[in-house]
TrEMBL record:
Source organism (scientific name): Myripristis murdjan
Coiled coil (residue ranges): none
One Gene Ontology CC term in the entry: mitochondrial inner membrane
Pfam families assigned to the protein according to its UniProt record, in alphabetical order: ABC1 (PF03109)
Record domain ABC1 atypical kinase-like: where: 69-295
Signal sequence segment: none
Family of the protein in this entry: Belongs to the protein kinase superfamily. ADCK protein kinase family.
Record-given protein name: AarF domain-containing protein kinase 1
Length: 450
């Protein structure tokens, strides 16, 4: 086993060096490794660790030793594509074929990045402190704190593999969801080998049109998937950017599938936090302002709860007051939000320092999902609120049943849950009839009668 993994390590180094992604100790690309990743992703940098680097630190590009190592790849793979299928600042993916004929993806962390990790944190800490000194209203120390917490999670590809298997089991009832199978015998903390998955990025409308994929179906299924993760299980994939979410038609069944990739960073939600978050969204969907205030305060927003509701939903306070499920998104509202975001930046900074750290990655996840919906032109669709409502009802009912002391009380809770889910189904049926040809015909007939 150790010998096989060392050969995979050698393979990784050879491929990385030859494809031009070799990073030297004295190179530091702030645009790539620090500023963008820290700001946009709430600091989820993944970097190779030094102890693994020492195993092949003497291997240099262009030497005979380098080429001799590559010649041993036949022991592991029938073929291995040196040119990466995809590459980012921290890792890249190569396509390979096993001896049993299966095609796999080999995800490799870039060598010699570990030596930069602590420097990146120091640089960001200095920058954050400098900004706070120049502009006292801006407090972004939470960025550095999140970096220190999240970095080890993305460093460990074995952890990523375990996350992938857990979410695959957790959401196995969704036939449309595919998570690539992990090949543990060819994986280490720095190299992850998995089944190769093909498909188009979830924001590629041209790909969907060419392959007959319904964007509304994709958006609805993505909402189902994430509502289940967030509200029911509290185990959330926190990097759903388009490169990590593929869509395709199954070659055999022709059904539409979603392939979820990159499982390095998950947020585990504590039960009390998750339930308060459920109840907050129920209040937001209904337009229950007393509930919005109550659960926003419980989640740490304090007197900034109106701003918190707007940040969470990306809607104006007027829309929140009216109930976000019944108020369509308009261009005027989007312009208002963009304008106010700049005006309220100090308050937003204070809010982010107040809320639990669990909320930070959820906000990032919501933002990425909202970006996908905007691209697909399905933002604020009724189906997304229906799926969220179903999951919230199930989550709250499950919690109540766990606290119930008698069988009668558990039965009451189950009946109440069933009634709530039935109401949602009836509302969903109403929306379907309203939007169907039959609904349009009935509406036209009623108009003529009046």
């Amino acid at each position: 086993m150790a010998g096989r993994l060392l050969k995979v390590s050698s393979l990784a180094t050879a491929a990385l060096a030859s494809s031009g992604f070799y990073l030297h100790n004295r190179q530091l690309d702030l645009n790539d490794l620090s500023l963008i990743r820290f700001g946009r992703a709430a600091v989820t940098t993944a970097i190779i660790s030094y102890d693994y680097l020492t195993s092949f630190k003497t291997i240099e590009y262009g030497t005979e030793e380098y080429w001799s190592l590559r010649s041993k790849l036949s022991e592991l793979f029938v073929s291995f594509e040196e040119s990466p299928q995809g590459a980012a600042s921290l890792a890249q993916v190569h396509k390979a074929v096993l001896h049993d004929g299966r095609t796999v993806a080999v995800k490799v962390q870039h060598p010699k990045v570990q030596t930069q990790s602590s420097k990146d944190i120091v640089v960001m800490e200095v920058l954050v402190r400098a900004v706070h000194w120049l502009f006292p209203d801006f407090a972004f120390m939470w960025l550095v704190e999140e970096a220190k917490k999240n970095m080890p999670l993305e460093l460990d590809f074995l952890n990523e593999g375990r996350n992938a298997e857990r979410v695959a089991r957790m959401l196995a009832h969704f036939s449309f969801l595919k998570v690539p199978e992990i090949h543990w015998d060819l994986s280490t903390k720095r190299i992850l080998t998995m089944d190769f998955a093909q498909g188009g990025q979830v924001n590629d409308r041209d790909y969907m049109r060419r392959h007959g994929i319904n964007v509304n179906e994709i958006s609805e299924n993505l909402g189902k998937m994430y509502s289940e993760m967030i509200f029911v299980h509290g185990f959330v994939h926190c990097d759903p950017h388009p490169g990590n979410v593929l869509v395709r038609k199954c070659p055999q069944s022709k059904n539409t599938e979603i392939v979820l990739l990159d499982h390095g960073l998950y947020q585990v939600l504590q039960p009390d936090f998750r339930l308060d978050y459920c109840r907050l969204w129920q209040s937001l969907i209904r337009g229950d302002m007393s509930g919005v205030e109550r659960y926003s305060r419980r989640l740490g927003a304090g007197d900034l709860y109106p701003l918190f509701a707007c940040v969470l939903t990306a809607r104006s306070w007027t829309a929140v007051n009216s109930g976000i499920s019944s108020t369509p998104v308009t261009h005027t509202e989007d312009v208002e939000i963009r304008t106010n975001a700049a005006l309220y930046l100090p308050q937003i900074s204070e809010l982010l320092n107040r809320v639990p750290r669990q909320m930070l990655l959820l906000l990032k996840t919501n933002d990425l999902l909202r970006g996908i919906e905007t691209t697909l032109q399905t933002r604020a669709a009724s189906s997304s609120f229906i799926n969220m409502s179903r999951c919230c009802i199930r989550a709250v009912a499950r919690h109540k049943r766990s606290k119930a002391r008698t069988r009668t009380r558990r039965l009451q809770i189950t009946l109440s849950e069933s009634f709530g889910l039935w109401q949602i189904s009836m509302y969903e049926l109403f929306l379907w009839v309203k939007g169907s040809a039959l609904g349009c015909w009935v509406a036209a007939l009623l108009g003529l009668l009046h």
